[in-house]
């Protein structure tokens, strides 16, 4: 099992927002949703990618000198990223085997113990690399490290069955209930996502924390929020976070050379109103 390899595009330490305590968040590359507002667009593709932040570039030319191909093509060797002191170039995607990734995770063991924190596997959709995820979760469990899995839930139910025994917390995204709306903004139906949540909550209600991104143009209206609130109430899910949209992903989309779709942030007033629906 230890020769399994995963593709990770980032490891963020000292997070306070991805589960209890202080956490290390591991972002797996590759997703099967295409959310238009995605704040980690470099997590969508399963392949390695090179991000170029034009606004940070000082045109010093060093990257062209060090690149084996003079920037005419790319094999993701990382030399330009290493030499660019202005952080204008970044490779997204690095292979880790289980031991290598666990080495990164256990560096912060003391912090986890002091704060009741742990590790959170996110993405992209970390459950799409299920063999690796199962192995690293088992390794963390064996070493008494608290584990959270951040998922959009659009995977076969069998994947959940494989990791439930080794997962302490699921951070489960619910984006909307109206199927046509979900398809319009993410390119996929939400039927499997909602069905998986129904099954998961029947088995381990206390292990689930729901996260709802709030985007004005998408689900940021009372009618859709009421539908989500009712769905979650019927399942008796009580740990619910509403996360207002932020535009951090836009710069990354530009750096990837991708089309940018702009959305607007919900106001404090509307966030308060939406939260009251879930407080009920
Ligand atoms: S090394 Fe960095 S700053 Fe210099 S040209 Fe390349 S990207 Fe721009
Ligand atoms: S990652 Fe390597 S091959 Fe790709 S542009 Fe940079 S230096 Fe060239």
Please, could you describe this protein's structure?
- It is a single chain.
- An eight-stranded mixed β-sheet has the order 5-1-2-6-7-8-9-10. Strands 3-4 form a two-stranded antiparallel sheet.
- It has helices at 62-66, 79-83, 98-106, 109-115, 130-142, 157-163, 179-186, 191-204, 222-234, 248-255, 268-279; strands at residues 5-15, 23-28, 49-52, 89-92, 94-97, 118-122, 146-151, 169-173, 208-214, 240-244.
- The chain is globular.
- By secondary structure, it is an alpha/beta fold.
- It contains eleven helices and ten strands.
- The longest helix has 14 residues, at 191-204.
- The protein has two domains: 5-44 and 96-279, TIM Barrel; 49-92, no CATH class.
- 36% of the residues lie in helices and 20% in strands.
- The structure holds iron/sulfur cluster (2 copies).
- One iron/sulfur cluster binds next to helix 1.
Key attributes of the depicted protein:
280 residues, alpha/beta, TIM Barrel, 2 domains, 8-stranded mixed beta sheet, two-stranded antiparallel sheet, 11 helices, 10 strands, globular, binds iron/sulfur cluster
Task: Give a brief description.
With 280 residues, this protein is α/β, with parallel strands linked by helices. Helices cover 36% and strands 20% of the residues. The protein folds into two domains: 5-44 and 96-279, TIM Barrel; 49-92, no CATH class.
User: Radius of gyration, Cα only, in angstroms?
Assistant: 20 Å
Task: Give the CATH topology of the largest domain.
Answer: TIM Barrel
The shape is globular
CATH class of the largest domain: Alpha Beta
Could you say which structural class the secondary elements and strand pairing correspond to? alpha/beta
- In CATH, the architecture of the largest domain is Alpha-Beta Barrel
Ligand set: iron/sulfur cluster
Helix content range of the residues, please?
25-40%
Strand content: 15-25%
Biggest sheet, spatial arrangement of strands:
5-1-2-6-7-8-9-10
> Helical region count?
11
Average pLDDT reading: 96
Order of helices and strands: EEEHHEEHHEHEHEHHEHEHH
């Amino acid at each position: 099992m230890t020769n399994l390899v995963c593709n990770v595009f980032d490891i963020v330490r000292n997070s306070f927002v991805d589960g209890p305590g202080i956490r290390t968040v591991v972002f797996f590359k590759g997703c099967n949703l295409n959310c238009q507002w995605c704040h980690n667009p470099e997590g969508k593709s399963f392949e390695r990618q090179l991000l170029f932040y034009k606004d940070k570039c000082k045109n010093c030319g060093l990257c062209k000198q060090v690149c084996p191909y003079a920037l005419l093509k790319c094999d993701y060797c990382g030399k330009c990223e290493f030499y660019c002191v202005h952080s204008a170039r970044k490779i997204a995607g690095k292979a880790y085997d289980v031991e290598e990734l666990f080495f990164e995770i256990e560096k912060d063991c003391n912090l986890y113990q002091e704060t009741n924190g742990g590790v959170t596997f996110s993405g992209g959709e970390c459950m799409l690399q299920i063999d690796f995820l199962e192995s690293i979760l088992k390794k963390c469990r064996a070493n008494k490290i608290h584990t959270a899995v951040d998922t959009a839930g659009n995977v076969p139910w069998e994947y959940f069955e494989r990791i439930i025994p080794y997962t302490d917390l699921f951070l489960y995204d619910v984006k909307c209930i109206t199927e046509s709306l979900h398809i319009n903004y993410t390119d996929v139906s939400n039927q499997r996502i909602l069905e998986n949540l129904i099954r998961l909550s029947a088995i381990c209600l206390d292990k689930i924390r729901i996260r709802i991104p709030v985007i004005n143009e998408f689900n940021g209206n009372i009618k859709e929020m009421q539908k989500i609130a009712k769905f979650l109430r019927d399942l008796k899910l009580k740990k619910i976070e509403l996360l207002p949209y932020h535009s951090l992903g836009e710069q990354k989309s530009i750096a990837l050379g991708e089309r940018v779709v702009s959305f607007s942030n919900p106001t404090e007033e509307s966030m308060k109103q939406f939260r009251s629906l879930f407080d009920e």
